[in-house]
Amino acid sequence: MNLNTLSLTVEHGVAQLTLDRPDRLNSFNDEMHNELRQALKMIKRDSEIRCLLLTGNGRGFCAGQDLGDRNVTPGSEAPDLGASIENNYNPLIRTLRTLPFPVVCAVNGVAAGAGANIALACDIVLAARSASFIQAFSKIGLIPDSGGTWLLPRLIGDARARALMMLGEKLPAEQAEAWGMIWRCVDDEALMDEALTLARQLASQPTRGFELTRRALAASSTNTLDQQLDLERDLQRLAGRSEDYREGVAAFMEKRSPQFKGK
Questions:
Q1: Fold of the domain spanning 6-203
Q2: Around Cβ 224, how many Cβ atoms within 10 Å?
Q3: Percent of the chain beyond pLDDT 70?
Q4: What pLDDT, in 10s, does the model give residues 48-103?
Q5: pLDDT over 90 at 262, yes or no
Q6: C-alpha angle 88/145/45, rounded to 5°?
Q7: pLDDT of residue 61
Q8: Per-residue DSSP letters for the chain?
Q9: How many whole angstroms separate alpha carbon 263 and alpha carbon 258?
Q10: pLDDT of residue 72
Q11: Pairing of strands 60-62, 103-107
Q12: Sheet-wide strand order for 110-112
């Protein structure tokens, strides 16, 4: 696959996908959307891949949409932003949330607009100490998209989410960790080593069980307790039929390290 706006490597069961438009802070244009869509399709089909690590090249993770890629000038016809969301951002968020393995995000710099919410859609988010998150939509008269109005209140509460979205203030990575918005803030020079170590650890674990866990978590915000208990029963039934469960029990009984296959 020829990629101009991304780079992709696969090693030790981990697909590392790097947004690679550093001169534009890895902001999205049509080409990047298309390449990312194709890369994720390939990653999803590869049975050897058991974890995705998403990061950015250069001094930013992702600045959201590249406004220079749109014709927004006085007197010009208004662009259909809903079409862009429907065709690009919404499918991306849905894909990240439903991949059959964990998704780790390493935020190496500013994550703004859609870039911030794409990061938050991942399962586990690490951020460099110098990184920051900005709900920049209010600066140009838009509303948060890419799942932001759903994700952010659930992570940090309604009051903080509203203020970040309406004020558009920069949230440093250390504060994001303190608020529970991300998993961990690490020193800049340690970010990729720690992210790769975490991704490889996840790739060696029972990823079929992780997939079922994601399904349970996705349903929990709208289910009643009784509905969630029933869902846990049904998903646990599936997990109990997996090869990984049998291997995990056998390894426990034999006092050895398990060799999970994600099946």
A1: 2-enoyl-CoA Hydratase; Chain A, domain 1 (3.90.226)
A2: 8
A3: 97
A4: 999 999 999 999 999 999 988 766 666 667 778 999 999 999 999 999 999 999 99
A5: no
A6: 40
A7: 98
A8: ---SSEEEEEETTEEEEEE--GGGTT-B-HHHHHHHHHHHHHHHH-TT--EEEEEESTTEEE-SB-GGGS---TTSPPP-HHHHIIIIIHHHHHHHHH-SS-EEEEE-SEEETHHHHHHHTSSEEEEETT-EEE-GGGGGT----TTHHHHHHHHH-HHHHHHHHHH--EEEHHHHHHTTSSSEEE-GGGHHHHHHHHHHHHHTS-HHHHHHHHHHHHHHTTS-HHHHHHHHHHHHHHHHTSHHHHHHHHHHHTTS-------
A9: 13
A10: 62
A11: unpaired
A12: 60-62, 110-112, 132-134, 170-172
Question: Are residues 51 and 18 in contact, defined by beta-carbon separation less than 8 angstroms?
Answer: no
- CB 177 within 8 Å of CB 186: no
Least confident of 48-57, 168-177, 223-232, 242-251: 242-251
Tell me the residue type at 85: I
How far, in Å, are 19, 59, 111, 180, 183 from residue 173 at the CA level? 19, 14, 10, 11, 10
The CATH number for 207-253, chosen from 1.10.8, 1.10.10, 3.90.1150, 1.10.12, is 1.10.12
Per-residue pLDDT, averaged over 136-165, amounts to 96
